[in-house]
């Protein structure tokens, strides 16, 4: 006898199919070149199902980016579990650079998302995920201070530029060494 799935299970499965399909298409083709008819066809759902879960293509894209940001944050948290202070900051940064090598992630997070979602939405997503862990690490190492948020923004931009360079073929080890030197200097200047 075949087990019946609940409505909640069907909704969750439909939403997941839409997110996975949209992620693959957005990563391959970009936001502008991906149409919702293609998403629903490849996901095997109806247009009505898409619009039941997401108001429009932009909302679907935002949900994809939120899922990517959650995955990045989970990788960072896994790499820094049980670590504190400077070691957590170092290992978290390396985990970020590693997870950004996931196929399609660089394009989604650092090329498409800024253009489609804009800085305010990205700042909110970042504050809820990986940006939060970076700020917490900096507060442990450098103390709060008035410049904690600005420092976290600048370090985040440094990691993003490194990820873009590595994605374009630069040697990851050279960026890790340069970032380590920068963090050594930062923590030494802050008395850590």
TrEMBL record:
Task: State which residue ranges cross the membrane.
Answer: none
Cite the entry's keywords alphabetically: DNA-binding, Transcription, Transcription regulation
Task: Provide the HTH tetR-type domain boundaries.
Answer: 12-72
Does the UniProt entry include the keyword Transcription regulation? yes
Alphabetized GO MF terms: DNA-binding transcription factor activity; transcription cis-regulatory region binding
Q: Does the keyword Transcription regulation apply?
A: yes
DNA-binding segment(s): 35-54
Coiled-coil residues are none
Protein name as annotated: TetR/AcrR family transcriptional regulator
Species whose genome carries this gene:
Thalassococcus profundi
Q: Could you read off the lineage of the organism from its UniProt record? A: Bacteria, Pseudomonadati, Pseudomonadota, Alphaproteobacteria, Rhodobacterales
């Amino acid at each position: 006898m075949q087990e019946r799935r609940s409505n909640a299970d069907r909704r969750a499965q439909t939403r997941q199919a839409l997110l996975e399909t949209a992620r693959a298409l957005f990563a391959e083709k970009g936001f502008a070149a991906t149409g919702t008819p293609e998403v629903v066809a490849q996901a095997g759902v109806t247009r009505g199902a898409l619009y039941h879960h997401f108001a429009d293509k932009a909302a679907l894209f935002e949900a994809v980016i939120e899922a990517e940001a959650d995955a990045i944050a989970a990788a960072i948290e896994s790499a820094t579990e049980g670590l504190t202070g400077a070691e957590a900051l170092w290992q978290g940064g390396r985990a970020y650079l590693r997870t950004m090598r996931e196929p399609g992630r660089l394009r989604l997070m650092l090329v498409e998302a800024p253009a489609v979602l804009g800085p305010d939405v990205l700042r909110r997503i970042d504050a809820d995920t990986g940006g939060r862990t970076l700020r917490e690490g900096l507060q442990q190492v450098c103390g709060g201070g008035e410049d904690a948020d600005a420092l976290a923004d600048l370090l985040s931009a440094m990691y993003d530029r490194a990820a873009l360079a590595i994605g374009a073929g630069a040697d990851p080890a050279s960026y890790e060494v340069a970032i380590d030197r920068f963090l050594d200097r930062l923590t030494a200047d802050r008395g850590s």
